[in-house]
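Researcher: Quick one. two chains, 824 residues in total.
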Amino acid sequence: MNVEIISIGTELLLGNIANTNTVFLSQKLAESGIDVYYTSVVGDNITRLNESLKRALLRSDVVITTGGLGPTVDDITTQTISKLISKRLVLNTRILKDLENYFRMRGMKVLTSSVRQAYIPEGVRHIRNKVGIAPGLIVRYKGKIIVCLPGPPRELQPMFEEKVIPYLQKRNPKRKWILRSQTIKLTGIPESVVNKSIKRILNLRPPTTVGIYCKLGEVDLRIVTKARDEKTAAASIMKVKKKIRERLKDFIFGYGNSTLEGIVGRRLDGLKKTIAIAESCTGGLLASRITDVAGSSRYFAMGIVAYSNAAKENILGVSSQTIEKYGAVSPDCALEMAQRIRLLAGSDIGVGMTGIAGPTGGTIMKPVGLVYISVVFDSRRLIREFRFKGSREEIKFQASQAALDLLRKTIR
Amino acid sequence: MNVEIISIGTELLLGNIANTNTVFLSQKLAESGIDVYYTSVVGDNITRLNESLKRALLRSDVVITTGGLGPTVDDITTQTISKLISKRLVLNTRILKDLENYFRMRGMKVLTSSVRQAYIPEGVRHIRNKVGIAPGLIVRYKGKIIVCLPGPPRELQPMFEEKVIPYLQKRNPKRKWILRSQTIKLTGIPESVVNKSIKRILNLRPPTTVGIYCKLGEVDLRIVTKARDEKTAAASIMKVKKKIRERLKDFIFGYGNSTLEGIVGRRLDGLKKTIAIAESCTGGLLASRITDVAGSSRYFAMGIVAYSNAAKENILGVSSQTIEKYGAVSPDCALEMAQRIRLLAGSDIGVGMTGIAGPTGGTIMKPVGLVYISVVFDSRRLIREFRFKGSREEIKFQASQAALDLLRKTIR
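Model:
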């Protein structure tokens, strides 16, 4: 079985938005061992969409379209399909019911423009949209399959994973291979050092390869293998993973979709330890990341964003002497912030962070990007100095990442 | 003149990397008034690339390919072009010289695999690559133009802007238009309501159109116009903008790249008012967004992330009676949080936020997504109730967005 993806939308041709749907669909299809030979983009133009669909149906078994299912006149997908397969549009009462429910839950009546979305070509199957309005379509036509999905990623993604992938897999018995991958996530180490330490592994040739992906404050290594069965795939991945672990163990914080805040949270939860945070330059970002984790209320006691010296002194209780003598951006102030917040919150762990996020406010001795992070836990008092580079937001993020990494290492 | 873009690379079909080249090329072509009707991706496969090129040449004046110009056997572009136009590959001594220079500057001899990159189809013009190795190609074939560019963005981008755009513009004397756009940003209003209030405007036909883009907690309207000159473009945009403003004024928070936190910050700064925040369910996100703005230290006094009831009572000083009587998630608690943090910080404005971010912790009376936001400013005490939907992170973001919007309206 081979699949072709057609994304519909003039905004994509103008480069206004990136085609993230195609990336998502391609990844999921590859993981399922389904070949994608072509992807393309066509504007909101019936003639050109029709031409693209016809061409795709000649060379591919399955054509997946994204977008063009909305309520406006620019949304041409349903109409084009109806014309292509010569089936008139008929009102689907189940879709209409879903629509009515959607609007009722929002205290509204169904918009007249949206009623149009309940009309689909006769005999065509629809996929319910649990997040938004536009349903998807599954069309069987001359031995081929056309799947139409809505454009918004948060609507398309669950529909594709829950309905379309199982539907295609059932109809793809001659599957020859599967693609499996694993991502190893590192932090606290520059890409160049990773590159050097595992140079040979990065030069591996198919069927098993390793890619390096550099993000802000994080380096990801992605092992990809093509195999005939799960067992072979798992063994190939394990072999490479072991080699990477041997060389870079200390910097690996997680695998797959794990996040640093999730890893730290799980450890805190497991140890039944609570944490409190006093942050300055990160402005609440560290607390926000920690509380992104469901269940964080069990271990997150409180946070104070002490931006001004007044807040550091009056609310947090950092001594004015410390600030006068060493400055607000100093290892001493970071430590005292960590100690004071632990005391105030009555938590097991205290974190103090102070630094200069920029773009202004730096000096020669204390440049933009200088950050001090302190963690106090039991009798331990850790203080680290960092010098980050980048924009204000990039420095904030890297500082929060470094604090989480220090926490990870401290509580392991 | 209309252009079609073909990106070459199996890694694109596997969804391993995003197709940023197509976004870049599309934007630049649109700005130059050159139409793009199709873009597509094809794997590293000679037969399929050949088929795609032939198809593209039937319907487009110019075909731009990206990728497949490297030194490995997977790089098939030059070879495919040579076959398509029936011109044999010949050594180009000027390319070879560039190659030798490139390697000499790096203290190396030319790699044998790279010598292959100095062979191009007879009679074809090449574009020098100042950043990397692979030269680009400009092929004239049966009245059409094929432009081949290397895959790495930092090589492709200067070649395209410096050489290809001028080349195409010279051959597009009948350029009739330029493309200009403006984005209007709204919040606090659902997409469906925007749709309804400006239905006619959304149905505008070219040369001036309005697109609606729904983000989390934000709806963007993008006016795009095709015009003969800057003056006409500006007038067309202004005319539509005025109409949109007439109907949706209250919900418009900014234009272009502006952010809600930036707009709120600028107003606070202008009025010389300071702000302090006590947040619960948003876990520091509101403080973090406010402090994403450079210069926010001038108006952001402090923030407290009071997650637990203990923190709300002991540190913030919310009365235990309020929490007992109404619960921590209540309008009363939100108001008291706003009042207490204003008092503690000695700021002009206080913000209190409390709610349930989920995924657990909701009840029938107080479901996940219920959030109370209070703003106190001078003698005003505002309290609003919201019911958001989505994941924990989505609820956090929408709540922070609603708080910023309430601030925006309060301090205008």
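Chain A has three domains: 2-170, 178-255, 260-410.
Researcher: Thanks, that's what I needed.
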